[in-house]
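re: that chain from earlier
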Amino acid sequence: MTVENNKPSEYTKPITPGKVIKSETRERVSHTLDLEDVGQSIAVKDLQNNDMNIFAKELEELINSPQVKEQIFKFKTPYEREQFLGELINYTALHKDFYKIDDFMKLYANGEQENSIYAAKYQKNDFILQTVKEKLIKNNELNPNSKLSSNSEKNKVIKYIFDNLIDNGIVFHGFNNKFKESIKENGLSLKRNMHESDSRQRIQDLFLKIGIEMPFGALNFRDNSKLYVSNSAKVTPQYANASPEWFSTFVSLPKKYESDDFMNSDPYVYQKNDLTNAKNDMVKFLAKYDQITDGERLEILDFLEQNWKDFRHEDSSSPISSIALINSDGIVNKEGIKQIDSIEKFENLFGVNDMGNYIKQFLNIIYDPNASDIALEKDISSEKIAILDMPNMY
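^ sequence. v structure.
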């Protein structure tokens, strides 16, 4: 069952193409950020502190609006819904005034059709190029009749992209909503709360008896040496909804190790906050192994239930996940991407000079799944983080 968030939103009305979405927040802070001018972007200023919080607040309103929720649930699978939301967030990182956000969503209007999420990506690059060009024309940086034929014109497009996605870029960290208050107060820390590590070790030892060495996945839960953020929000909703990863991996053990017997089990019981079916699956799973005693089965089920209470709200209408937005300054190594910060450099590397190829290659580079995840070995203070709650997608 889908639970709607009843929070009032200014986005309940249809969004007029080409107009900046108005909200009470924007009007209240208009003396700080001139967001009424669609030719301007927040990236004109450094995206720091108050600016980031304003952006996060308005982005939260947008993604929790009825319009976006309706679009989300056009997609048949939770995976596609998460992918769409990630793409939407990535687009707002480029146009932080939400320029033509409704038109961007129309690229995904056929969400009910199979593979529509993949079909949209082939239109997305052309749309991004067109909207950047329009913004530059509105800002009198390009001639209205520009065909982007000269290197000078192309470099203005590239500068806009770099201003927004690199120099004033954002990195993302998805997490369980139960961690929100702690992160607001303490930031993102390598010293994560490991008070349950002993009980996890006990459960791991029990599963070793039946040949399962890593019931919590490949993640070493005693290793606090890395903190992961991403250049791209494309998979951030997926990670956030399954957070913490070690526990969602544990919940999914029956389907992973006895897939034939649990073929009809819901793979999203954790994301749906369905403790009853999660326990039922675990009971049936453990019953297959005589090596596990009745007392040990109860121990495992108690572990499941106690951690479930730690990571899921009792109120099913509460958000299950949130995203931290962090200024990429000092986090992302920008030297590599600056090898293509002009069309001349791009041509030297790739042998082509057109902007269509440039947009495609640029986005492939910064959103490459193998490169977009960044492992940090330092804490991020709360002052550098803005947080938004995600809509429930199950």
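The chain has a mean pLDDT of 83.
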